[in-house]
């Protein structure tokens, strides 16, 4: 894994002016993100590392702020934003109606899910149609949840046995279920399987499920409209400056790079994530 952080990003005056007064005066952007989820966000020697901590640090610096990063279980991120404990949340947030009902979003990346199976397994699922009758592990609150609901429906329509779905609060727990043969496969973001393999673990990534833009969640309050605009402007600046690409390449997530960060709010037409 890469060591350290990318070089500091200097504040951009016109972007800093977009930051709401309450946050600018505080000088800190409070960030909620995942933990134990390589290569996105995890802890090494007590420090938050990964693509997300590096990206949000660059975003905050562009706005003239310091990023105060808090790691937690994925389902807790939006709950923390709703409780106004954090300003933004970063993870693999597909922009869904249930999420837009409670927060605003700014797209910053794109991803799709894939299966991870044990090396040597004869079960090599290629799509959601292949989950029938199998034990599938997923991360709570992730895109795997609606994907497996769709899988159950399609298995029923085909007259096949339903998949046995196990939901875990952290990806490390889902991976443990796979390695101990309590699950036939883990359904997760594509890069998670690639990272597991690169780290020497005896797994194989296979197939593709769904996909589309992922987004930064913005706590909904009196500041959310301005903060979403500042976040969007920061992403655009980082893309144009090359820092965005630099960070993604360091973590092997550049395959999902985008060039058009978009704001989504309640009532907007949302991306179509076909499974």
Automatic annotation (TrEMBL):
Coiled-coil features, chain-numbered ranges: none
UniProt domain Solute-binding protein family 3/N-terminal: residue ranges: 28-255
Transmembrane intervals: none
Keyword set includes DNA repair: no
InterPro entries: Solute-binding_3/MltF_N
Alphabetized UniProt keyword annotations: Signal
UniProt keyword annotation of Signal present: yes
Family: Belongs to the bacterial solute-binding protein 3 family.
Protein name: Solute-binding protein family 3/N-terminal domain-containing protein
Organism: Erwinia typographi
